[in-house]
Amino acid sequence: MDKEIIKQIIIENQEFIKDVNLYERDNKLEKQGNYVLIGARRAGKTYTMLKYIKDTLSEGTDLSQILYINFEDERLIELKTNDLNQIIEAFRELFNDKPLIFLDEIQNIHGWEKFARRLADQNYQVFITGSNAQMLSREIATILGGRFQIYEVFPLSFEEYLKMNQLIPEKNWEYSSQRFEIRKLFETYFYFGGFPEINKFDEKKLWLRNLYSKIFFGDIITRYKIRNDFALKILVKKLAESVHDEITFTRIRNIIQSLGIKIGTATIIEYLSHLHESWLVFKIENYFAKITEKETSGKYYFIDNGILSLFLLNPETILLENIVALQLKRTYGNDFYFLKKNYEVDFYVPEEKLMLQVSYKLTKPETENREINAMQALSETVETRSMVIITLDIEKKVDSGKNKISFIPVWKWLLNFSN
């Protein structure tokens, strides 16, 4: 590999970073860590890396200390494992500084893992992104031997989505005319999700279909060499339709078999694992369930409302619950559950002692009473500090005895919850 070409790429990338304008994204990357950024296709892994670089520069790091390489650059197409160290050598010939190293989409370079480990061993700070089709969190953790932290990048939160649209909620925005702008943007976010690129396109459904096709065929069918793609398509559709329901492996197998498709429980388990590893869905468990029950049942949610909406007619009830689950996933990782023990509550966060119900419409008193009664009953079983019912547009407080229950519109909850 010609080292002069590498030098040219290094300088061009520094110029690109200096001039690029980026909106705000929540960033929890620590200054001294080594990171592998993983997550759904098009969720913004490269963007998160670039935002970290810009933040680092604004805090006083000189541009000459930044070594950013995007391995999708066609000039690097012939780069081999043995050439990787030339990147460091080329940088050292240009600058006398020890660089902060950012390796973007490196997964196609065979043997990159040993290179990254060696850099970390030499006390370089290293950031890596890669296509989720080749880089799964459990694989990466083993390959890199604990020298890197895994950082999961999600599609935009609602707060980030507003910032991308140049709207930053002011103090007391709930009472100003700004609330109308926020509510209008929420409608788009609710139905089309938070993948950053979707904002560029008028035909948002078409963009989402194309993205789902790439995930389905590129990250799942091709990677795992799945032959029965029709069965997998049906599985994804049935998961979408069952977002608010607890499902077991046996139940989903029976549903698919009832359509005349031959499929066994072992295959269902395998397919669900692939969907999870490709960041299409994630699972939460019943807080009260035994270990064996947690392994065989749960509730499945989608990584983005836009993709979920592709499978649904009249999707509002399901989308509302999914958007709440996704916000909890961003905030608490795997440490939230649903409650099911005679009664059922949609979500419970042990860390906050927070109980959440989700109800799109509360037009009938019996619906409201059912939600309240379930929370009251289960609050006798788990420690509860606060109870919230998330709605589309109802806001009020109800005194239920030892706890007051807050009814909060989802668009307001998403913003207040992130602060």
From TrEMBL:
<feature type="domain" description="AAA+ ATPase">
    <location>
        <begin position="31"/>
        <end position="156"/>
    </location>
</feature>
<protein>
    <recommendedName>
        <fullName>AAA+ ATPase domain-containing protein</fullName>
    </recommendedName>
</protein>
<dbReference type="InterPro" id="IPR041682">
    <property type="entry name" value="AAA_14"/>
</dbReference>
<dbReference type="InterPro" id="IPR003593">
    <property type="entry name" value="AAA+_ATPase"/>
</dbReference>
<dbReference type="Pfam" id="PF13635">
    <property type="entry name" value="DUF4143"/>
</dbReference>
<dbReference type="InterPro" id="IPR027417">
    <property type="entry name" value="P-loop_NTPase"/>
</dbReference>
<dbReference type="Pfam" id="PF13173">
    <property type="entry name" value="AAA_14"/>
</dbReference>
<dbReference type="InterPro" id="IPR025420">
    <property type="entry name" value="DUF4143"/>
</dbReference>
